[in-house]
Amino acid sequence: MNLKRVVITGLGTINPLGHNVPEFWGNLIKGVSGAGPITRFDASKFRTQFACEVKDYDPISYFDKKEVRKMDLYTQFGLIAAREALQDSGLDKEQENVKRIGVIWGAGIGGLQTFFEECRDFATGDGTPRFNPFFIPKMIANMAGGMIAIEHGFKGPNYTTVSACASSAHALVDALDLIRLGKADVIVAGGSEAAITVPGVGGFSAMKAISTRNDDPKTASRPFDADRDGFVIGEGGACLIIEEYEHAVKRGAKIYAELAGGSANCDAYHMTAPDPTGEGACDVMLNALENAGLKSEDVDYINVHGTSTGLGDVAEPKAIQKAFGEHAYNLNISSTKSMTGHLLGAAGAIEAIACVLAVKNDVIPPTINFQNLDPELDPKLNFTFNKAQQRTVNVAMSNTFGFGGHNACVVIKK
């Protein structure tokens, strides 16, 4: 088949490091931590009392009061990220066939706060079923994608990918495939999540998946460090405008990079733990490279899943060594979750933006908070610890892995 080329023409985000892409990138390169005490609820009785929240967020700055009441926070974050990305892309909706512009949005959970509040109010009431008429549309995980399309009038393919922490990476892979096959000209792709809630923090805490470093939150997310004790939960949204190359050239769009390839598979191993052999992670990287028509030695940088958990931080580097052989020692590897925290369903999109900007600017964002290397890891690997590094980045890869064994990988090149 004559597959079409696919490029990235717009970026948008709101996350713990900034309310837009320039703020995010500036703080990412400086190695700023987005962690701090939880303000969204009283966490004083919780084992974990900190998270990576979006700072100084006022919904009235973005929406009128009536709109706010109709949308969960995860939907708000999605709309804000999409607005910035579309503006950045310069796409003129009046000049486009909106039936060929789609939205594919990832969310691991959806409206968790909405679900919690409605169930809490019912459980503490007199038993009379008084539910908000917006309860269901606020809560369901597909609503952010639907609302983005409604706001902008996009009538092309529209659905939500739900694969835990791989959700928005799967959205990017699907966007790539749809445009390659000629089924759309433009896809608004990304993800959003807002799980810093009582059940979100409580649930991950019960699993002993999140850090309890309450005395020093900013150093709590420390991927690959021997003293890591779990991930730090984050929130926000991230959006990439994925576009057919000739369509972008014809309208004179600025092109950040090419979305060259992507792949998805499953460990089929465990509900929450990665396959310790790294087989699935290795295969998804090799399949993504084959899909992109590239070789292992073409890759300069991998933005790893790197959550700061015991099992995952060991399995992924081993998978990289298995996939890349000796070239693994020529790569820069980094985990931007050390700064943003783990955005769950939005992680793949925000980390893809980091890869796009690494390719554009020839800068590798760091893995911060490193002190002592896990003895199970190879010290010859370059994890880009603590400081950003300058190098030519022609090809970057982003790995995202989710509970259930879901693996996704995207390849971005100059």
From TrEMBL:
It is an enzyme of class 2 (transferase). Transmembrane segments: none annotated. Pathway: Lipid metabolism; fatty acid biosynthesis. It catalyses: (9Z)-hexadecenoyl-[ACP] + malonyl-[ACP] + H(+) = 3-oxo-(11Z)-octadecenoyl-[ACP] + holo-[ACP] + CO2; a fatty acyl-[ACP] + malonyl-[ACP] + H(+) = a 3-oxoacyl-[ACP] + holo-[ACP] + CO2. Keywords: Acyltransferase, Fatty acid biosynthesis, Fatty acid metabolism, Lipid biosynthesis, Lipid metabolism, Transferase. One of its GO terms (biological process) is fatty acid biosynthetic process. InterPro entries: 3-oxoacyl-ACP_synth-2 (IPR017568), Beta-ketoacyl_synthase (IPR000794), Ketoacyl_synth_AS (IPR018201), Ketoacyl_synth_C (IPR014031), Ketoacyl_synth_N (IPR014030), PKS_Beta-ketoAc_synthase_dom (IPR020841), Thiolase-like (IPR016039). The active site is at C165 (for beta-ketoacyl synthase activity). One of its GO terms (cellular component) is cytosol. Its EC number is 2.3.1.179. Residues 3-414 form the Ketosynthase family 3 (KS3) domain. GO terms for molecular function: 3-oxoacyl-[acyl-carrier-protein] synthase activity. Involved in the type II fatty acid elongation cycle. Catalyzes the elongation of a wide range of acyl-ACP by the addition of two carbons from malonyl-ACP to an acyl acceptor. Can efficiently catalyze the conversion of palmitoleoyl-ACP (cis-hexadec-9-enoyl-ACP) to cis-vaccenoyl-ACP (cis-octadec-11-enoyl-ACP), an essential step in the thermal regulation of fatty acid composition. Belongs to the thiolase-like superfamily. Beta-ketoacyl-ACP synthases family. This is 3-oxoacyl-[acyl-carrier-protein] synthase 2. It comes from Odoribacter laneus YIT 12061.
